Structures are given as C-alpha cells and as structure tokens.
Amino acid sequence: MKVTRVVHEAEGRRKRVAAYVRVSTLCEEQGESFEAQMKYFKTLIESVRDWEFVEIYADQGITGVNAKKRNGFTRMIEDAVNGKIDIILVKSISRFARNSKEAQMYIHKLKESNVEVRFEREGISSLNPQSEMVFNFMAAIAQEESKSISENMKWTYQRLAERGIRHIGNNHVLGYAEIEGKLVPNEDAWIPKLIFEEYAAGLKSKEIIKHLDERGARRMRKKDSFQYSTINYILRNEIYVGDRKIQKKPPIDYLTKRPDYTKSYDSFYIKDDHEGIVSREVWKKVQRRIKSETEKRAKKKGNL
Question: 227 falls in which pLDDT band (50, 70, 90)?
Fold first, then answer.
C-alpha cells in the first residue's frame, strides 16, 4: 500500500508582496520620483491586511532594455522563482521592461512559479488570461518608445559632432580637465607627456611603467600600477596632440547598449581643437613607431 502525504496550507496565509521600482536617470527630479515610488509601494503593501511586505526591489539610473544590468530586477526574479514572493507590484509595464521579448519571457517565467505581477497604470494582472494581449501590446509600445528616445539622442549627437561639439562627460581624460567645454591640461599632464617622450625615444612599455611608478604616478590610478593597455591607449589618443576625433565607434544599439558595427556612421576629425600636451613632432614619431611595430608583429605572426 502506498501512502502519499498531501499538505494543505492554512486558508488565512497572507500573500507575500513585493514591488519593483526603476528610474532611468540619476537627475534630481527622477531621484525624487524614485524615492516617492518606494515610499508609496511600501505604505500601500503594509496597509493591506492580507499582505505581508517582502521588499522594494529597485534600480536607479538603469535603462529598462537589458535585464542583466538591473541587479534589483534580477534579484527579484530569483527570489520570486525560489518561492519568496506571491505578488509583485509595478507602476507600469515600461518600468518592468522596455524590451518586449524580455518582458514576455520574465512574465511567463513568473507565471510558471505562480507569481502574479500587477501593473498599476495599465490596471492589469499577469495571471489574468484576458490581459495577456494588452500586456504584449503595451510592452511593444514601451520598446518603441525606448527606440525613439535612442534615435533622437543619436540625431542630436550627430548634429553636435558636425559642429565639432562633444563633451567628455564622465570619461575623464588623464592629463586634462574640461573647463567650459574646452580641454585644458591639468596637474597630471606630465604623465602622458612622459609616456609619449619616452616611447618616442625608444623605451619599451615595461620601462615606461617602471619610471611612472618611481615618480608616483601609480598613486593617481585605481590600480597599483599602469597597465600595458593603458599605455597603448594613451599613445594612440589624438587628444594629447591637441586634436579631437568625434564618434570613434558606431552608435550604441538601444537594446544591447553596445556599438552596432553593422551600421554606417560618420566620424569628424578636428585639428588644433585644444592645447596639446605633446608636440606634433613627438606625436608623429610615436605613431610611426606604433605602425612599424604593428607591421612587425603581423609579419612575424604570418610566418608562424
């Protein structure tokens, strides 16, 4: 005789409820919205007698087109699949995801774990079969909105590039400060200057790194010492001779957030854009040596 144990949950068990909040920028206005949403959902969940508050999962300053980059979102999905959540509250479908394919994939994944997602703005539930068509339609609209925003940004950057305008933003250039939109050498300018002059004189990267370390340059970097890749990048960067190349890579794909090398694009080279740290003579000498050594390596590789 086979005996099977059947567990019946108590009828009064409260639903474990969480919420997901996301804003795509870190500006002050969005920051206030972010805090307001978190406070709103926490208050709402705690006010419902039959609900048990789990957590507010959040991503601030993160785009909604790629779930892998949203730590709060991925952690929430993992907790839900592992049976820690019964209901997830979200302000809107666009906050949940701006990638139609990903949105549908995660909704189905949560359904399989019997986890309900409620979208406040659209007034729909993922467990309602009649809502699936509406959800898919709204998810597609959210993705198109993201695409439209991306295309508008590309157009703006293109027009600015044609006028020779491009701020370095958070991508700080060693040896320069950006003052009123113009690159100006700062107190670290001696570092790239030393790199160029010693490379032009025939020294190897290993020797240059040693000299930088001896002069304390490593303390200005996140790592203990300069890396070969950093030396190589600096030696190839036209900024140090006073020039500027705008749009070095293809525009970023709005879904993958990576350069799309299948698309054509225009670059703009601006000569004498700002004060150089190295002379044109040193710059040309360095570029000739780089070209020569690159050809030698390619020839040697071809003979192997």
Answer: confident
Q: Are 57 and 18 in contact (CB under 8 A)?
A: yes
pLDDT digits (tens, 9 = 90+) for 58-113: 988 765 445 577 889 999 999 999 999 999 999 888 788 767 778 788 888 998 99
290: number of Cβ within 10 Å: 14
Q: For residues 256-282, b (16+ Cβ closer than 10 Å) or e, as one string? A: eeeeeeeeeeeebebeebbebbbeeeb
Residue 33 has pLDDT above 80, yes or no: no
pTM over 0.85: no
pLDDT band at 251 (very low <50, low <70, confident <90, very high): low
d(C-alpha 237, C-alpha 242), whole Å: 10
DSSP 8-class letter at 82: T
Residues 6+ apart with CB under 8 A from 259: 249, 250, 251, 252, 253
* Residue closest to 251 by CA, chosen among 147, 165, 171, 104: 147
Q: Which helix (H) or strand (E) holds 32?
A: helix 28-47
Calpha distance 213→206 (Å, rounded): 11
Q: Which amino acid is at 272?
A: D
Q: In the sheet where 116-119 sits, what is the strand order?
A: 51-60, 15-23, 87-90, 116-119, 124-125
Residue pair 120/46 in contact by the 8 Å Cβ criterion = no
SS3 at position 233 = helix
d(CA 172, CA 157): 19
The CA distance from 291 to 68, in Å, is 39
